[in-house]
User: Fold this.
Amino acid sequence: MNNSILRLPEVTKMTGLSRSSIYLMANNGSFPKQVSLGERAVGWVEKEILTWLQQKADARAVK
Assistant:
């Protein structure tokens, strides 16, 4: 797994979630929090997004 920083377009493409869903879920703790990259820029740690996706796939397999 990689510790690269992903910007919002990459995260939306990887997850299929909209911008508003990502921020809503991050605020309620059900999605990885963004990392501040500067005064007006944020990103997400790729490893955390991949782990979140794997957890979703694993939960589906259990049901």
